[in-house]
Amino acid sequence: MNKKVLKAVFPAAGLGTRFLPATKASPKEMLPIVDKPLIQYGAEEAEAAGIESLVFIIGRAKRAIPDHFDKAYELEVELESSGKEKLLQIVQNVLPEEVSCIYLRQAEAKGLGHAVLCAKPVVRDEPFAVILADDLIKGDSGRGAMAQMVDVYDKYQCSVILVEEVPPEETNKYGIVEVTEDDGETAIISSIVEKPDPKDAPSNLAVVGRYILTPRIFDLLEQTGTGKGGEIQLTDAIAELLKFEKVRAYRVKGKRYDCGSKLGYMEATVEYGLEHPELGEDFAAYLRGLACTPGSKASKE
Ligand code: G1P
């Protein structure tokens, strides 16, 4: 094999029902954390991992995603003529020029496995990354989760799946893995199951929105029938992959925010806000003020 991971697939055709009505006409991947949409954090993470092509799997009402990564002529002319250099740079540098974007339409939302399979004609026989943008991950020491995973892939030359321990009562929200040869950082996956009830879960090690997969997964996805929730599940195809190849679990060094849930989204907004170079100090002062205001909800905690 010995190929590099140069493509990342971004499934982004879901309906975003947990954020309605915000996601009625615009994609959940475009929800901002402070001033950048979730999908841009994902794209930057891919780029920092050496990935050169971003493959977006989009559905209806997702035109804002290609527009976001496209050139914005009128806006740029406007910013230039009014001397707003800094903003102009921000708009022009949404992605570096070396990174190319490919958009594929998933006509029906038939599940994550189906979305990944849509990328087969573009990815073909290469290993590739999958990034679920609503899992926002802040890597330790500024090293992104995908860059960490590419290191693991380069070392072991096998599929790598990002995992994190979750509270045992939450296993029904995630793909859950069982592992052997666990060195505390990586381990070999011996089984994987989609969203098991806590009583049936083989562990509390949950898959958290980042995968590096070998291309054999496409053949397996083609044979995968509908699973949990009546959808074609990536987890089910990975369970088949285990019969042919080693797949490693990797525990992220960093912090994950579940921006697919309102609480996780708000936590990310607060923490990224506190670290924002222009806003951080004022925002921290505001939060302290809230905590000290007698009778406020924040003061009761
Ligand atoms: C998907 C996967 C699941 C994984 C999760 C991570 O579920 O099917 O295995 O644990 O992403 O965020 P979803 O959150 O799309 O329901």
UniProtKB/TrEMBL annotation:
Alphabetically ordered keywords of this record: Nucleotidyltransferase, Transferase
Classification via Gene3D superfamilies: Spore Coat Polysaccharide Biosynthesis Protein SpsA, Chain A
Record GO biological process: UDP-alpha-D-glucose metabolic process
GO molecular function, one term: UTP:glucose-1-phosphate uridylyltransferase activity
EC number: 2.7.7.9
Recorded catalytic activity of this chain's protein: alpha-D-glucose 1-phosphate + UTP + H(+) = UDP-alpha-D-glucose + diphosphate
InterPro entries (UniProt xref): GalU_uridylyltTrfase_bac/arc, NTP_transferase_dom, Nucleotide-diphossugar_trans
Record function comment: May play a role in stationary phase survival.
Protein name: UTP--glucose-1-phosphate uridylyltransferase
Organism phylogeny: Bacteria, Pseudomonadati, Pseudomonadota, Gammaproteobacteria, sulfur-oxidizing symbionts
